[in-house]
Design goal:
Blueprint lengths: L3 H36 L10 H10 L1 H35 L1 H16 L2 H12 L3 H25 L3 H9 L4 H38 L5 H10 L3 H29 L1 H4 L9
Helix pairs in contact: 2-10, 3-4, 3-6, 3-8, 5-6, 5-8, 6-8, 8-9, 8-10, 9-10
Length: 269
């Protein structure tokens, strides 16, 4: 226990040191924003000051907490389903040339359709509840995971693959012990992008038709000129996105410590 405390202190100090420039930059931007709204007397409905946004966050904290839960649940479920569906499909595409030729162009075509164009149809088919938002989040998060997983599973060492064939390994064994470990860096890289895209998809669905969620808050508050509340929702979305991105990075470090261990003396630009 005594040996772990210095390590925790060192990690905390390192984290604070790396975060300090970003925190200082944000603080200077907030001070400039506050000064601009005061000097030019910008009305609250046009551009609220940071202090007014903080006041609105405290005033609407209980209502916003519920909406945060709704949007976060839609995002996590949509991303989770996308991950569970994308990995088996990627494995099937890699293992069969026929499936690759039959379905890969279809997936590319589906991805090329803007999701905000089909969002009204999904709302019409599945209602204004959370299911339609989960489907939109799933559709946006699905394609990057499939593409990166396929790339990682295909970029394998030829000699090692030939050795697996020589040992008469089954397709499941080749996938589990060979292709999947090789694809993990690609999958985690795609997951970092996809989980933030799933958040965007959930908000798009809430814009089109919903009665709760942060997207709904932004839409209603903007229409009623409560711009400070809309900014609060935007700030919360940014914090959720950064938190989810960091969460995937944490899981990545736990799953692949041999690849994500940072050097003690990083090369600086």
């Amino acid at each position: 226990m005594e040996r772990q405390l210095p390590n925790l202190r060192a990690n905390a100090t390192l984290l604070m040191g790396r975060s300090a420039p970003a925190l200082i930059t944000v603080l200077l931007l907030m001070l400039g924003w506050q000064a601009a709204t005061s000097i030019w007397a910008i009305p609250n409905w046009l551009l609220p000051s940071p202090t007014r946004i903080l006041a609105a966050m405290w005033e609407w904290r209980f209502i916003l907490l519920y909406d945060v839960g709704v949007t976060l649940r839609e995002t996590l479920v949509g991303f989770g389903v996308a991950l569970l569906v994308a990995l088996p499909i990627a494995a099937a595409l890699v293992s069969s040339e026929l499936l690759w030729r039959a379905f890969y162009p279809v997936l590319a075509g589906v991805q090329s359709v803007p999701k905000n164009a089909i969002a009204p149809l999904l709302i019409l088919w599945f209602g204004t509840g959370q299911l339609s938002k989960v489907i939109i989040a799933f559709l946006i998060a699905f394609f990057p995971i499939v593409i990166n997983a396929v790339s990682g599973m295909m970029l394998v060492d030829t000699d090692a693959h030939d050795m697996m064939k020589t040992l008469r390994a089954s397709r499941l064994q080749v996938f589990w012990y060979f292709r999947l470990p090789n694809a993990l860096p690609f999958i985690f890289a795609a997951s970092k992008v996809s989980i933030t895209l799933a958040l965007v998809g959930a908000v798009i669905g809430e814009f089109v038709g919903a009665d709760s969620g942060l997207g709904y808050v932004i839409l209603i508050s903007s229409s009623q000129l409560h711009t400070d509340v809309a900014f609060v929702a935007i700030v919360l979305l940014a914090l959720i996105g950064m938190g989810l991105f960091s969460l995937v990075g944490m899981v990545e470090r736990m799953a692949m410590p041999w690849l994500t261990t940072e050097p003690e003396q990083p090369v600086r630009p």
